[in-house]
Structure formats: structure tokens, C-alpha cells
């Protein structure tokens, strides 16, 4: 490998590390996933569609560690909303998924606890995608 090739590889590596190119613009990386908290108030359907438009989906919480990270991420947000639409949450103590369905729409509420809300209430939302 020539010095120029080595320099190019080194610069590309540093560029990737410092700018966080693993995630789309506006998303933050944590353990091979990318997250974006949006305080724009949307009903469940619009929040779902906006995440899809960004090649992502509403947050699916797979662990307590992930939930704690999301709580820290939301806590850094300058704006406060009544809650955030999410897709689903796995409760390890009960060994089952909690998901939004036509009667119950899962949110992370303003106290950063999981609860349900009516699908038409305008709330923020959290999108998730895989880091690349």
C-alpha cells in the first residue's frame, strides 16, 4: 500500500469515527442501533409513517439498558412533550412483549415510564434503525 493510500484510509477512518457516519443524519448511535427523538407532535399513524420515511421504525425496546439509554437521550432534549410514541417493549421479568394494538397505543410518557395512550393524541416519537 502506498503512503497516499494509507493516508486516505486513515482519514476515511477518522472521518467515519468523528462524524458518526454509522447512523443517518439526526440519529444517535448506541450498541449498533440508531435513535432519533422528535418532539414534533404527531398522532400514532403519522409518527409511524414519519419513521418509515426515514428508513426506520418506531422504537422497539429490547432491554433495560436500551430503555435507560433512551431515557437519557430524551432527558437531553430541550423541549418537553407529554410523551413519545414507541413501537414495543420487551418485559424481561414477565417474559413477553408489550406492543401497540388497536385498543392500546404504547408510549414513553413525560415521566419516562411506559404507558398507553389514545392513538390520536399528538405526541413526540422515537425512531430506531440499525447502524450501518
From TrEMBL:
One annotated GO molecular function: (1->3)-beta-D-glucan binding
Leader peptide range in chain numbering: 1-20
Record key words, sorted: Signal
Highest taxon, organism lineage: Eukaryota
Single biological process term from Gene Ontology: cellular response to molecule of fungal origin
Keyword Repeat on entry: no
C-type lectin domain mapped to chain residues: 30-105
Short name of one Pfam family: Lectin_C
SMART domains: CLECT
UniProt-listed PANTHER family: C-TYPE LECTIN DOMAIN FAMILY 7 MEMBER A, C-TYPE LECTIN DOMAIN-CONTAINING PROTEIN
Protein name per its UniProtKB record: C-type lectin domain-containing protein
Organism this protein belongs to: Dreissena polymorpha
Amino acid at each position: 500500500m502506498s503512503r497516499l493510500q494509507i493516508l486516505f484510509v486513515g482519514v476515511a477512518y477518522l472521518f467515519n469515527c468523528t462524524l458518526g457516519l454509522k447512523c443517518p443524519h439526526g440519529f444517535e448511535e448506541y450498541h449498533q442501533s440508531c435513535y432519533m427523538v422528535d418532539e414534533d407532535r404527531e398522532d400514532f399513524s403519522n409518527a409511524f409513517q414519519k419513521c418509515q420515511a426515514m428508513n426506520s421504525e418506531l422504537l422497539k425496546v429490547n432491554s433495560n439498558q436500551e430503555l435507560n439509554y433512551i431515557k437519557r437521550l430524551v432527558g437531553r432534549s430541550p423541549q418537553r412533550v407529554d410523551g413519545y410514541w414507541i413501537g414495543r417493549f420487551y418485559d424481561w421479568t414477565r417474559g413477553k412483549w408489550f406492543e401497540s394494538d388497536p385498543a392500546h397505543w404504547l408510549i414513553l410518557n413525560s415521566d419516562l415510564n411506559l404507558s398507553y395512550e389514545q392513538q390520536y393524541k399528538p405526541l413526540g416519537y422515537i425512531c430506531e434503525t440499525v447502524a450501518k
